[in-house]
Write a structure and sequence with these properties.
About 75% of the residues lie in helices and about 0% in strands. By secondary structure, the protein is an all-alpha fold. Helix 3 runs antiparallel to helix 4 and helix 4 runs antiparallel to helix 5.
């Protein structure tokens, strides 16, 4: 009996498979076009570079940073500048320097011709890093305010404790 129930449960699924397999697709559906040929540009190169950086161990990152920095000193091209900026903004590295990255972005020569993807990327990074610096500054200010308030609370708590002690002493004298 149990075996029969199992067969009855599977039967609708099998029938559905057969019906689906026999279905005819309407001919008016557009055929799937092959993907456009892949064209790599400067932005693709930058993103591939960044992705490869994320996978590197710290020692290798330092070696790459030194090489990219040397390349930038020798040739201040847009791509060398972008690579150096990407390295400077990498988190958890010994050479992380947001201020230098922002400086490099602001000193990036601006062309009068229409903006390229790399120039748009520069604008995006510059605005994001400026916002990050602003937020970091705000966090530092708030952290300092918190420390000041904690000191104030501690001082007030000490004053409250002193008043409580004076009241206890007064009560004990009266007894």
């Amino acid at each position: 009996m149990n075996r029969m129930r199992q067969k009855l449960r599977v039967l609708p699924a099998i029938m559905l498979m057969f019906v689906a397999a026999c279905a005819v697709l309407p001919e008016d559906q557009p055929s799937i076009m092959p993907a456009d040929p892949i064209v790599t540009g400067q932005m693709d190169d930058m993103m591939e570079f960044y992705e490869s950086l994320r996978k590197q161990p710290p020692a290798e990152l330092t070696r790459i940073y030194d090489k990219v920095k040397q390349n930038f000193v020798q040739n201040k091209s847009d791509s060398n500048r972008a690579r150096l900026v990407l390295l400077l903004i990498l988190p958890h590295t010994s050479f992380r320097d947001i201020t230098s990255a922002v400086y490099l972005l602001h000193e990036w020569p601006r062309d009068s011709k229409p903006a390229t993807n790399l120039q748009s990327f520069r604008n995006l990074l510059a605005s994001l890093l400026a916002e990050q610096q602003r937020l970091t500054h705000s966090v530092e200010e708030l952290s300092q305010k918190l420390k000041d308030e904690q000191k104030r609370v501690e001082t007030l708590q000490n004053q409250i404790d002193a008043i409580k002690n004076m009241e206890k002493n007064l009560i004990l004298r009266e007894l």
